TrEMBL record:
Domain RNA polymerase sigma factor 70 region 4 type intervals: 93-143
RNA polymerase sigma-70 region domain residues: 17-66
Magnesium in keyword set: no
Source organism, top-level taxon: Bacteria
InterPro entries listed in its UniProt record: RNA_pol_sigma-70-like (IPR039425), RNA_pol_sigma-70_dom (IPR014284), RNA_pol_sigma70_r2 (IPR007627), RNA_pol_sigma70_r4_t2 (IPR013249)
Keywords: DNA-binding, Sigma factor, Transcription, Transcription regulation
Keyword Transmembrane: no
Protein name: Sigma-70 family RNA polymerase sigma factor
Biological source species: Paracoccus marinaquae
């Protein structure tokens, strides 16, 4: 059975090295041995063995993963820099935020324009985390209404 399994696994392994394929063959043989009592002797043996081999091959691919690791230093010159924030968009957002009630405006300025964390903004405005989420939701609703009124 081992030569047939080796051929099957190498054919489906997609160029993996022989050691890796042999590990999968051995795992498959162990699984067949451990699960031999589940085979129905009234059914053909080959589909049962192939199903076990297929599952072991999938398990091996999952363990191996598909991540590719390359040193960033080799590409530092060609990587794009983070995009600069658009000054016009920030100005328009600030103008719209200024039309909100003071608390809503302060919250949105802290979170969106100053890009501070929720904990810091909550402490600055005296809001618990739950109250901050509720206030943020309401402020965003008011902001959306203002944008609709302006036709933006």
């Amino acid at each position: 059975m081992a030569p047939v399994l080796r051929g099957l696994i190498r054919a489906r392994a997609g160029g993996m090295d022989d050691g890796w394929c042999e590990d999968v063959v051995q795992e498959t043989l162990m699984a067949i041995h451990l699960k031999r009592a589940t085979w129905d002797s009234d059914q053909p043996l080959r589909p049962w063995v192939y199903a076990i081999a297929r599952h072991k091959l999938v398990d091996a691919f999952r363990r191996r993963g598909r991540a590719v690791h390359l040193p960033v230093e080799d590409f530092a010159e060609t990587l794009e820099a983070a995009p600069e924030p658009d000054g016009i968009e920030r100005r328009d957002a600030a103008t719209l935020i200024d039309r909100l009630p003071a608390r809503d405006a302060a919250l949105l300025r802290c979170l969106a324009l100053e890009e501070r964390g929720q904990a810091e903004c909550g402490a600055r405005l005296g809001l618990s985390p739950g109250a901050l989420r509720v206030a943020l939701h309401r402020a965003l609703q008011r902001l959306a209404r203002l944008r609709q009124e302006d036709g933006q």
